[in-house]
Amino acid sequence: MTRSENGRGSGPERQCTGSVVMIRPATFYSNPETIGTNPFQHSVGASRADTLAAAQSEFDAAAVALSDAGIDVIVAEADPAADTPDALFPNNWFTTHSDGRVALFPMAVANRRRERRLDLLRSIALKRGLVFRSVVDLSALEDDGQFVEGTGSLILDRPHRLAYACRSPRTHDAAVERFCSTFGYRSVIFDAHDSAGRPIYHTNVMMAVGPALAVLASSLIAPGAGLRLVFDALESSGKTLLDLSAEQVVEFAGNILFLDGAAGPVVAISRRALASLSRAQRLLLEQHARPVICGVETIEHLGGGGIRCMLAELFLPEG
Known about the structure:
The protein is an alpha/beta fold. It has helices at about 50-70, 110-115, 120-130, 150-155, 175-185, 225-235, 245-250, 270-275, 280-290, 295-305, and strands at about 20-25, 70-75, 95, 100-105, 135, 155, 160-165, 185-190, 205-210, 215, 240-245, 255-260, 265-270, 290-295, 310-315. The protein has one domain (about 20-315): 5-stranded Propeller (L-arginine/glycine Amidinotransferase, Chain A). It is built from ten helices and 15 strands. It has a three-stranded mixed beta sheet, with helices on one face. A three-stranded mixed beta sheet has the order 3-4-5, with no helix packed on it. It starts with 18 loop residues before the first strand and ends in a 6-residue tail after the last strand.
């Protein structure tokens, strides 16, 4: 399989890539600026030094597991001077595309905006011989209080040009539509809430889309037009559905990423997420991709994001 066939070269975008960027944390603690809109996030009494050490250990093990599965893992170091406790979730601030464009996204809180490092992306592209054609900077939407936090907010079906998005304080219709009109996607926007009635803060904790399988907690979506819109889009794109419960979403079972491994399709999934699946669900998942299991419990508990949030996909073409 050539690199272009693997989703890393020129031509139409495939759903999966075999190259990801991971940002190793230089600081890590429960971010006080985000905890108000992220019920997956918790505070603990441990020192910041201890939580950082635990997060770095989990991060390093996950990077090794993915590399061993044949994923091209590009590890960059977070900027310690920036004091960005969520820097290990780079998928929220940028996406890359097979036409050589890079999108920068509007972030809901100030300390997360410091994570954006265009110089880092240019450096990675240069070192890897990738085409970095232009930047689409959507961050000015922050001035209008409009946010869409990358592939946290957006679940992209790249071949079918569909962008699924759950409304929340971090995902606004206008920002979603700006991305879609710029990159040629059709928006599929809906409302979803957890069992306490709180908006699902990021779409990628309740939904993932692979080449042929979609993982979704459909029971969390408000009945009516939004739910019909989601099901119609999944049906039109020929996806098989693996439906999750609300309890499985809490265990990060929706926070997974399908990737192209060296020996075939893989899916990055956390240890607690995989343990939450029923036998039938696990068998269905394994029919489509081999699980790469990552133990990231500290990151999930304090950061409120999981293994999918830690992976920013590279789709830039080769030069």
